[in-house]
Design a protein that fits this description.
Blueprint lengths: L4 E7 L6 H9 L6 E7 L6 H11 L5 E5 L5 H11 L7 E5 L4 E2 L3 H10 L7 E5 L2 E4 L5 E3 L9 H4 L11 E2 L1 H17 L4 H11 L3 E5 L4 E5 L10 H13 L2 H15 L6 H16 L6 H7 L6 H13 L3
Parallel strand pairs: 1-2, 1-4, 2-3, 6-10, 7-11
Antiparallel strand pairs: 4-9, 5-11, 6-9, 7-8
Amino acid sequence: MSRHVRIQMATYNGADFLPEQLDSFLAQKHTNWSLTVSDDGSTDGTRDILRAFRAKNRDRDIRILDGPMRGSSANFLSILHRDKVPDGAFIALSDQDDIWMPHRLKRALSVLEKGAVWKAQIYASRTALIEGDASQRKLSKRHKFDPAFGNALVQNVLAGNTIVMNPIASQIATETAQTALRFVPPFHDWWLYLLLSGVGAEMINDVRPGLLYRQHGGNVIGAHRGARDALRRLSMVADKRYARWIDRNITALTRSGALLTSDNQEILDRFHTWRRQGNRHASIRSLKETGVWRQTPAGNAILVMMARSGWF
């Protein structure tokens, strides 16, 4: 019997693109899936589309929940907390405006089942970026280094719309979601990267894309491309938004700190100390000694600059 996958989708005013995404679920080569959707107060036709999809697929377990109306991250965390996932099921997260490639679920399960199935595992992949129709595609960035807790403290490299968690990781994410909701980490995928790397999960970032990621004006984050996006990210640094994001992540993580491995707890403690010292001791060498790092030398240099400038 094939593994069961619970798809969890957060929606908000997604009527323009939602039908294509739902159709791509039906086209999956792995057919043993169910769907839970949390709608965050849509005022367009999103609810009607979801209800019609459920009515046409009565043989599937399709649930529609009311979201907390506190933003995208809280909406996803709310699903994790409230959804009654079948025992032994995998969880696959979904945005409302992508198009899944037919192999997405089958590929993710195949990769996961080749790994350390006796421990928590989280899978993510690259995406094929599209704008307008799906004829023009560009692969998302390929990160140089493997995912790790030291990276997760300051950077997210797991695309949330591609995440699949094995049953052990799903249980950890579900059991900690209510606590995380009290502090609302800024991005649900960054939170899952931080949490699961912290507990020692196997982290998989597949170089093969599993979905078409649509770029449009309504994206919560969007792909990091071009000078405009670079300037936007720099503004997040200068106004200390990025520092506040890290604060919220760490506050939520501390409440689940008993789950961290001893090695990762030491990294977290050293990072706390480094941030408190700020401009007095910040250097590339001192950052490296904490065990915290970004994927590029330039990214590490920016962290040091932030600390020296009091932005961190």
